[in-house]
Specification:
Layout: E1 16-22, E2 31-37, E3 41-45, E4 50-54, E5 58-63, E6 68-72, H1 80-83
Antiparallel strand pairs: 1-2, 1-5, 2-3, 3-4, 5-6
Length: 86
Amino acid sequence: MITPKNLVKHELTGLKVEITGSSDPNKIGIKGTVVKESKGVITIDTGKEEKQIPKTECTFRFFLEKETVDVKGEALIGRPEDRIKK
């Protein structure tokens, strides 16, 4: 089960997400579902298109069952299977 405390150690695919902060103002407000994740990029399906978002330049808000979690992209750097080891 994904909780706010263990979110960064989990696979993000399938989670609802919104970008709440970014060094690129055009990315703020993008929201949708995470459809793919690589070492440095999260791909979000917005319902209209898929957007590739660099992890390092954004703050993400993930929507869990009963709460939201804000995570700085730097905490998500790395492949999901490697983040578990951190």
